[in-house]
Write a structure and sequence with these properties.
Blueprint (H helix, E strand, L loop, with lengths): L1 H9 L3 H7 L4 E10 L2 E13 L2 H6 L11 E11 L12 E6 L5 E5 L16 E8 L2 H5 L6 E7 L5
Parallel strand pairs: 2-3
Antiparallel strand pairs: 1-2, 1-7, 3-6, 4-5, 4-6
Length: 156
């Protein structure tokens, strides 16, 4: 099934990526293109935060997040985006993704409720927040590729 999803995603057009932004959830696939083959690493069922209000609230006040769940922040432009952990009770990994759908950097094991600004030195367009340790547990690193598959509101 993972191979089928990866092949499906490899054929996604720019129009399909734009349609994904209109949905409420996406399946985020992370893999490492190695020697012309894609080595699957992880998938995340992600809520989409695309409005300013959704991005500001993020995962605040959540007491739990499923093992393969997260939040995908869709920024209005590519840039040096900063996040903080105010009112966020969970430690997270923040995976910064460029417009080229490559991971540009990861901030691991954030400190809950910290107001320190967190960002990376490279521009990004998307940020995937997952449970702390997720990146290490799945061997996710800078340079890995990412694909989004839109999901219906029911998660299908």
């Amino acid at each position: 099934m993972i191979m089928a999803l990866t092949l499906f995603c490899a054929k996604c057009s720019e129009n399909e990526k734009s349609e994904m932004e209109l949905g409420e959830r996406a399946l985020v696939l992370i893999f490492n293109p190695s020697d012309g083959k894609s080595v699957f690493k992880a998938e995340v069922d992600a809520e989409i935060a695309k409005t300013e209000e959704q991005r500001e609230r993020g995962l605040m006040y959540r007491k739990e997040l499923g093992e393969n769940e997260g939040m995908l922040f869709i920024m209005p432009y590519s840039g040096h985006h900063k996040f903080w952990m105010k009112n966020t009770l969970l430690s997270l990994d923040m995976i910064f993704i460029g417009e080229d759908m490559k991971i540009k950097g990861i901030i691991k094991n954030t400190i809950p409720e910290s107001t320190d600004p967190l960002g990376i030195s490279e521009p990004s367009r998307y940020v995937l927040e997952v449970n702390a340790g997720f990146s290490d547990n799945h061997g996710i690193s800078k340079g890995d590729s990412v694909k989004f598959i839109p999901l219906s509101p029911e998660g299908n």
